[in-house]
Specification:
Mean pLDDT of chain A: 91
Oligomer: homodimer
Strand order of the largest sheet of chain A: 1-2-9-4-7
Order of helices and strands of chain A: EHHEEEEEEEEHHHEHHEEH
Structural class of chain A: alpha+beta
Strand content of chain A: 15-25%
Shape of chain A: elongated
Distance between the termini of chain A: 51 Å
Largest sheet of chain A: 5 strands, antiparallel
Number of helices of chain A: 8
Chain lengths: ~240, ~240
DNA sequence: CGAGCCGTTGAGGGGATTCAAGCTCAGTGG
DNA sequence: CCACTGAGCTTGAATCCCCTCAACGGCTCG
């Protein structure tokens, strides 16, 4: 884990005032705040990078910081009572991780990097204090909770039902929305796909192979592929049709 | 729909000060507020009763009020792109319905009564104004969002995967937690069960029939049954075991 | 009493799982 | 350089579970 505490940097370091000039500021948690509110914040914020499969937040632990995701994709997962892993949700650029810690609730799920990720670590007290002074921040937090809830509902409706083919297609549609349009799309491992969709590794593999043969996916490399959006939409429409 | 506007009642009506003496006050949204904060609230709150299958909130519409559920069970549902109905979540006594309206977001799902329900209708502006004066109310709202999110995650982990038998058992376990312990448990229609669990009517029916034969369910009436908690737990443990 | 809804049960087919075997590819050490 | 290794991916064959289609019975209501 590569930690860069901003407050240890010289004041004239271009990154020292990172929170003010942050490229993600408008979409991140503090986007609703004025410059003056951010004055002292950046001293407590730590930029970090993590590799694939590294654990950002652990279920059961009471962490003392939340994270803003600057780059990459993370997954929320837990073990079912039958012992299988279930991936419940993905989060992408701009999302806030570990929000429940602000309510002093224990984490229910592990949060794990799907790709290499860059995050900003924000101590819980910093958010709470800012929230007391700035109701707009509380409003923003509510928006984020609602967004997470809608995401979870959409996940349930799209990825948890229907044929294996439909689920995989829906997953691809969601995954393309993470990276830049046109850029290669991150593909999970087959096992991860299975745990997202409630399918086995083999079924996921068969579906992906078929989509490659059909031209929906091309240039599959180690963990990325380019998706033909038109073909994807066509395939989705066909699956959704009663035929 | 049976509407009883409280402010039309004489001041000495025992129900007129319903919000203060409400039996659910401690668990409901306004439970965090002091008596003085509730002074003028009850004038804007309307008690309502609705029958089974009636629509409380409609997806797409921008409603102007939220509802506190006093009695009964409601479901959140939507249509998938393939045209099938999917039930995403249940809410019970004390839950707040239509929370997203407080953020001026459109509703994504229909909210429909599963049983006869009693609700308190609270206009959105009332909540927003109170929230400005009382940060504790905002805190309570965040708690409720987090609770809904955890519920949604649990639904996904428990009810969206595994064998049909496991899903039905998990659903029964959840349903028993709504009514009073020992009291008969509300059972959805087979079609509703199917739409909750991603199964067909017939499969749901077969599973329920089997559980009745096994003694997990007894005295099935029109829409209620008594559940043997021990047998249910035993069955769940057996399903979750690798054997 | 017939109509319609809901639940149940049966028979047959299909799609996902299971079990098993090869494959590719990156990393390792000879 | 290349065999060796192990993790991840693919593919095949057999099995099983759930879906589909169908028929029937109970119940409520017009």
């Amino acid at each position: 884990m590569n930690v860069i505490p901003l407050h240890r940097r010289p004041a004239n370091d271009p990154q020292a005032r990172a929170c003010l000039s942050c490229s993600m500021r408008s979409t991140a948690l503090f986007g609703v705040l004025e410059d003056s509110d951010l004055e002292d914040v950046h001293q407590h914020v730590t930029q970090m990078q993590m590799d694939t499969d590294q654990l950002l937040l652990e279920a059961g632990r009471d962490g003392e910081a939340v994270y803003t995701l600057r780059e990459g994709i993370v997954r929320f997962e837990r073990a079912t009572t039958s012992g299988e892993r279930r991936i419940l949700r993905l989060a992408g650029c701009g999302d806030l991780l570990g929000q429940e810690l602000l309510l002093k609730r224990p984490l229910m799920d592990d949060v794990i990097a799907c790709t290499p990720v860059a995050v900003c670590r924000i101590p819980v007290p910093v958010v709470l204090q800012l929230g007391q002074r700035q109701p707009a921040l509380l409003h923003e937090l509510m928006q984020r909770w609602q967004h997470a809830l809608e995401d979870s509902h959409a996940w349930l409706a799209d990825l948890a039902g229907g044929s294996a083919r439909r689920r995989v297609l829906k997953l691809l549609a969601k995954l393309t929305s993470y990276g830049a349009p046109g850029a290669p799309t991150w593909l999970p491992r087959r096992e991860e796909m299975g745990d997202m969709l409630g399918l086995t590794v083999e079924t996921a593999s068969r579906q992906i192979s078929r989509l490659r043969r059909e031209g929906v996916l091309c240039s599959l490399t180690r963990r990325y592929a380019t998706v033909d959006p038109a073909a994807l939409q066509r395939a989705l429409a066909e699956v959704d049709r009663p035929g």
